[in-house]
Design brief:
There is one protein chain. The chain is mostly helical. It contains 4 helices and no strands. It is globular, with a radius of gyration of 13 Å.
């Protein structure tokens, strides 16, 4: 649970800021994408649950989104933090019930 809390604390404020900026820019599709990721992040209960939002964040560049000069630094910082979380989560096995 510590990793989940740390992920929320590290990524949550950055995602909040990104969503506000995307809304100001009128980028509804991108804003909704990151709102969904933020929702998955806040609903995560364990390390395994974190994998979904982390994969989504890691693939946002591959989706072809273009970011403004204002949002690009936020995306870079989010991806840096995401990379660190991936390293922490390597080898996490799912808890199958």
């Amino acid at each position: 649970m510590h990793k989940v809390t740390a992920a929320r604390n590290e990524l949550g404020p950055l995602l909040d800021q990104l969503i506000v900026q995307l809304e100001a820019e009128g980028s509804a599709t991108q804003r909704n994408h990151f709102k969904r990721i933020r929702g998955h992040l806040y609903c995560a209960n364990d390390d395994w649950d974190l994998t979904h939002p982390i994969i989504e964040l890691s693939s946002c560049i591959a989706m072809g989104f273009r970011f403004s000069r204002t949002t690009a630094p936020l995306i870079r910082r989010i991806l840096e933090k995401t990379e660190g979380l991936v390293k922490e989560l390597e080898g996490v096995d799912p808890n199958l019930h």
